[in-house]
Amino acid sequence: MARTPTGTIHSVATALSIAKTITGITNAAEAVVSSVANGYSNGDIVLVFSGWGRLNFRAFRVKSALADSFVLEGANTTNTEMYTPGGGAGSVRKVSTWVDLDKTLNHSTSGGDAKTVNVKFIESDVEIALNDGFNAVQRSFDMDADMIGTPAYNALKTLSDTNADTIVRRRTRSGAVSLIPATVSFNEEETLTEGQIVTVKGTFNAQNISTRYAA
Q1: Residue 187, C-beta contacts closer than 8 angstroms, at least 6 positions apart
Q2: I need a labelling partner for 116 at 20 to 30 A (CA). Which of 63, 70, 190, 213 fits?
Q3: Using CA atoms, how far apart are residues 59 and 95, in angstroms rounded to an integer?
Q4: What is the pLDDT of residues 156-189, one digit of tens each?
């Protein structure tokens, strides 16, 4: 069913728990992580650091949590050319604190578009286009400037000042969720526009691609 942005809640991770060691990750439609005494529960959000480049610094939701293992919901690692068997070990950190971002508006996203390289071999008259990945994602938004001093404002300011790693979470009114690892740039200079509220501006600089979950 189609939806509009109305009712979407944005949150940022302001604290990540101590890293837990990953001793192995399976090649599966949903990867199973071996991590002794991890203490995780279903629904936890984790940031993965893995020897597999395509999984490294991705955010996922935990499911089927057990004492010494858990599943990364939606992490498909079946392709053994991309995910070399036995090569996924590393560490994982759980989000321990979220702060909701209240009174934001004018959200926009740029990037995430396919990149191509045009190549023309000397014997040919025709160029060909080769896929070359995707460009970086940036999300920008405005915040009511009078939010200064609130947990949301302070969280953005601290994340920006420290250049700390975070995860940005979107929760829609329907229950769909998206997660993206990012850093924050927070511009406290007020924007004054006649007939509109005074705002400050934030930017999420994505460090990887989104992980999306249906409602």
Answers
A1: 200, 201, 202, 203
A2: 213
A3: 10
A4: 999 999 999 999 999 999 999 999 999 999 999 9
DSSP 126-184: S-EEEEEEEPPPEEEEEEEGGGTTSHHHHHHHHHHHHT--EEEEEE-TTS-EEEEEEEE
Is the distance from CB of 77 to CB of 71 less than 8 angstroms?
A: no
pLDDT of 34-59, one tens digit each?
999 999 999 999 999 999 999 999 99
Report yes or no: 102 and 110 within 8 Å, Cβ to Cβ: no
Q: Please tell me the distance from the alpha carbon of residue 80 to that of residue 159, in angstroms, as a whole number.
A: 36
Q: What does the block give as tokens for 144?
A: 């009511």
Collapsed DSSP state (helix, strand, coil) of residue 146? helix
- Per-residue CA distances from 123 to 128, 129, 130 (Å): 13, 16, 18
The pTM of the full predicted model, rounded to 2 decimals, is 0.93
Count of H-run helices and E-run strands, the chain = 1, 16
Average pLDDT taken over every residue of the chain: 97
Give the tokens for residue 141. 């938004």
Task: Return d(Cα 64, Cα 69) in angstroms, integer.
Answer: 8
Please name every residue paired with 138 in a beta bridge, in sequence order, or none if there are none.
Answer: 110, 205
Return the CA Rg of the chain. 20
Burial of 15-25, coded b for 16+ CB within 10 Å and e otherwise, reads ebeeebebebb
Determine the Cα angle at 23 with ends 180 and 93, to 5°: 30
One-letter amino acid identity for 7? G
